[in-house]
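Board notes (copied after class):
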Amino acid sequence: MSLFIVGLDNTIVNIALPSMQHDLHASVSGLQWIIDAYTVVLAALLMLSGSTADRVGRRRTFQTGLALFTLGSLLCSLSPSLGWLVAARVIQAVGGSMMNPVAMSIITNTFTDPRERARAIGIWGGVVGLSMAMGPVVGGALVASAGWQAIFWINIPVGLLAIVLCALFVPESRAPRARPMDPVGQILICALLAGLTYGIIEAPSAGWASAQTLGCFAGAALVLACLVAYELRRAEPLINPRFFRSAPFAGATVIAICGFAALGGFLFLNTLYLQDALGRTALHAGLFTLPMAGLTAVCAPLSGRIVGSSGPRLPLAVAGTAIGLSALLLTGLTAHTPVWRLMVAYVLFGLGFGMLNAPITNTAVSGMPRSQAGVAAAVASTSRQIGQSLGVAVIGSLAMSTVHGPLRTGIPAASHVGWWVAVGCGAAILLLGILTTGRRARRTAERTAERLIHGSTETAETA
């Protein structure tokens, strides 16, 4: 239930953006911040929330997250201006960050058999994927019937019910040995994501070659270098750079970023196209994406079964090919593009996205020591949120930089560059899915696991 509302909130907001823009007098960059204020904060705090749950208790952390998410939803519905709405989205994200790591930690530690774990992750992917894909449909119905505020109302009763059920049925648990806090690493991660996202979103208005934009990019690069250098010196870092010596893990991280960047950009551009360019209502725009939601719901559990029986290569190949072809069909988008072409693109995207989630998490945790599986899964979840943030920021900003005239008439042609970026994301998923699932790649995972086990043993002996 909690995973469903967190995933739903990731995408339900997109369909309400035109209505928010009208009521709150927001610019396109303001709309991007409504999405990215949530995903950036969620990505930045997932690792911290996971380690906090291990230390103070998973149920306690989970309930606190539910309470904050519910409060944030209430504040979002009451927001009188864009600034208040963005601030309330941050509160929502802080709560959301406390729910995802607990759920994935339960899966990775309960299902130790690789096949059972892959199937469990497939079900998890189905819930998350279905909720994210259903967002535009549910959001369209709510906006059409009660206004954009209603997309946040739906979270309140569900959140309150989940808090009660959690208190009744979820036992308290803690890790035998919680990882130490890493405040410096956490601050560096927040600075990296905030600076990079701000630079990209504000680039169309400030200029891509302006001092502000170049300064943000240079600052982000400097922070990244400091983060890697600092984390390599820690015995138990927040994010262990040594994980990336494993080709499957590194590949899963990049695939997650590419796949969710394509999703974020797809939903953002599609919403503006259907409602601003074609004049569709929020409800009609949501119904247009129903094929995508249906295919995602069907394919996510199927993907988990395929991963469990034959490995992640086939689902990743299907995901990359389908997402790339879907975006390719939209690179020539006009105000007169036939409906059948849009439907084919939506079906292909639903197929690709549905196949994507299970192999990402399974590939990230496969080969890792059990003691590190939860951390590896948390990095994969963080990569998803980073990808969606960058998708909205990069694809949205590139499209807005090429708009000529009013948004209503300019968005179809301006969106072409964004769709080409999504094509590139699909190609990257396909290529990395092939390169990081072979024997040579698996050997790098085995060597990395040996080093991590040896390093953990030395740390324990020192302690």
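Comment from the instructor: The first helix runs from residue 2 to 15. Residues 459-463 have pLDDT under 50 and may be disordered.
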